């Protein structure tokens, strides 16, 4: 394999391609079957070594930092994707973007992905103050919540999705999710509350779930609420 890659003319889109190829080559299974298509072990190892070398170039971190400071969303997205592969902590950057536009920011997802036990309280405090929870909990319906007008519901969804990692946190958000017209909000709220040890439930929690069960219009969600109340694993 004769291949020479120059640092000077490669950008983050090339790095992301290398990162994906490097990940693919590191997969432990399936190579016996791929051998018949030309993926011999020496060839795989040689290409893997080449990817490892390119992946380690310092230029990628420099380019990533520049991209993360760009105003263009596509450039920022490439930088953020590269930062994820490079294990760069972009939590504070995403938190600042969320604070600047809490209802429309695309950074909620990456912010919550990088949030740990030391950071979750700050994120939840902001979410509870910035999201219009009263306007969200208008009652259950069959909404997908993807169209204009559901930006707050979408932001809440990103938070609820990760709350299962933080038992006994974010009750106000979970409560709003249980009363949301968006089906996914309700499912994510149920999953988050299911992570709470039952002995930590207060009467308010049980009452909210009972009420949610009574008024739930979706059969699948209703069964999940029944499982939640019974302490069963969620289907």
Topology of this structure?
Layout: H1 12-26, H2 31-35, H3 41-55, H4 59-68, H5 73-85, H6 91-100, H7 108-113, H8 120-130, H9 133-136, H10 151-163, H11 171-178, H12 183-194, H13 203-215, H14 219-230
Largest sheet: none
Beta-strand share of residues: under 5%
Task: Give the overall shape, derived from the CA principal axes.
Answer: globular
End-to-end C-alpha gap: 50 Å
Total domain count: 2
Helix content: 55-70%
Helix and strand composition category: mainly alpha
Radius of gyration: 22 Å
The number of helical runs is 14
Q: How many β strands by DSSP?
A: 0
Q: Which stretches are low in confidence, meaning pLDDT under 50 for 5 or more residues running?
A: none
- Summarize model confidence as the mean pLDDT: 94
Helix/strand order, N-terminal first: HHHHHHHHHHHHHH
Please tell me about this protein's structure.
By secondary structure, the protein is an all-alpha fold. The protein has two domains: 1-88; 92-235, no CATH class. The protein contains 14 helices and no strands. It has helices spanning 12-26, 31-35, 41-55, 59-68, 73-85, 91-100, 108-113, 120-130, 133-136, 151-163, 171-178, 183-194, 203-215, 219-230. It starts with 11 loop residues before the first helix and ends in a 5-residue tail after the last helix.
């Amino acid at each position: 394999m004769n291949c020479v890659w120059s640092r000077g003319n490669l950008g983050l889109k090339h790095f992301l391609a290398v990162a994906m190829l490097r990940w693919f080559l590191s997969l432990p299974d399936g190579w016996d079957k791929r051998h018949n298509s030309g993926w011999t072990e020496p060839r795989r190892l040689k290409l893997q070594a080449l990817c490892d070398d390119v992946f380690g170039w310092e230029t990628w971190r420099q380019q990533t930092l520049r991209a993360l400071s760009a105003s263009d969303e596509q450039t920022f997205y490439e930088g953020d994707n590269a930062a994820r592969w490079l294990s760069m902590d972009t939590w504070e950057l995403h938190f600042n973007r969320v604070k600047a536009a809490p209802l429309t920011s695309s950074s909620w997802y990456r912010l919550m992905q990088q949030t740990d036990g030391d950071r979750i309280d700050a994120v939840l405090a902001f979410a509870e103050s910035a999201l219009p929870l009263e306007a969200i909990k208008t009652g259950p319906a069959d909404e997908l919540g993807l169209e204009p007008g559901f930006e707050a519901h979408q932001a809440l969804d990103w938070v609820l999705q990760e709350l299962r990692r933080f038992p006994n946190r974010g009750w106000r958000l979970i409560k709003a999710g249980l009363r949301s017209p968006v089906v996914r909000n309700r499912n994510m709220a149920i999953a988050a509350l299911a992570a709470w040890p039952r002995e930590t439930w207060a009467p308010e929690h049980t009452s909210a779930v009972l009420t949610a069960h009574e008024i739930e219009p979706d059969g699948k969600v209703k069964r999940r609420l029944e499982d939640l109340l019974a302490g069963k694993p969620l289907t």
